[in-house]
Amino acid sequence: MKNRDHLFESELNSYTIYNKNEDLIEFGKCYTDGSILKKTIYERVTNGNIQKTIEKKASGETLSYWTYKYDSNDNLIEIKTYDAENNLTDIQSNTYDKNENNTEIVFKKPNSNIGKKYVYKYNADNKKLKN
Length: 131
Hints:
Elements: E1 12-18, E2 24-31, E3 36-44, E4 50-57, E5 62-70, E6 76-83, E7 88-96, E8 102-108, E9 115-119
Antiparallel strand pairs: 1-2, 2-3, 3-4, 4-5, 5-6, 6-7, 7-8, 8-9
């Protein structure tokens, strides 16, 4: 465990870049000498929603990427994860109720019915109930 004297001793630092609307567009990890280890780039559409996220090595080589799908109310309904060879590796699906509360999250592998499912319930005040 690090003590207070060693709290900020690290081989890595990070940086964050925002667009003019203060939306995150890039997050990077770099060594203390300033050289980049890897970075994550967030591609956004006009309304600010993330359309695609790309994780890259310092060389610019893609490590993985995610695509995002929204419903007509701008609720995030699907995230697909791909590896560097463009193979679909994971799928997350979200379901919402009429009050736009996230009622279900399903994680699964492509071409598989096996995965994890989380179900959420809300009270009349739209407060999430403990599961």
